[in-house]
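ESCALATION

Customer reports they have been waiting on this structure for their group meeting. Please prioritize. Original submission:
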Amino acid sequence: QVQFVESGGGLVKPGGSLRLSCQVSGIAFSIYAMAWYRQAPGKQRELVARIRYGGDTEYVDSVKGRFTISRDNAKDTLYLQMNSLEVEDTAIYYCNKFPRDVYWGQGTQVTVSS
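Update from on-call: job pushed to the front of the queue and completed.
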């Protein structure tokens, strides 16, 4: 069974930065496209960014130029560097495969507030 363990969230002021990490186990991480998703209060979970096994990346328009997704296949770890954070980025952030697996981790809370 695949497991996702997200970390790195926290409270940050608008304009600040955070780096999220996701340790993945139970799958051959390097062969899968991976993604970061987020769920804001009262909203549906949405795709934020994805990265193919070869390294190609795609982003939702609202985070383009501010977020960077990356992966370390040797460590089975997915990252999300988030810069110029905005209040609207407040959400629980999850990593998963793309397309997503049925299993989810606990996520990591990101709160952007002054």
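Sent to customer with the following note: The chain is about 0% helix and 50% strand.
Escalation resolved.
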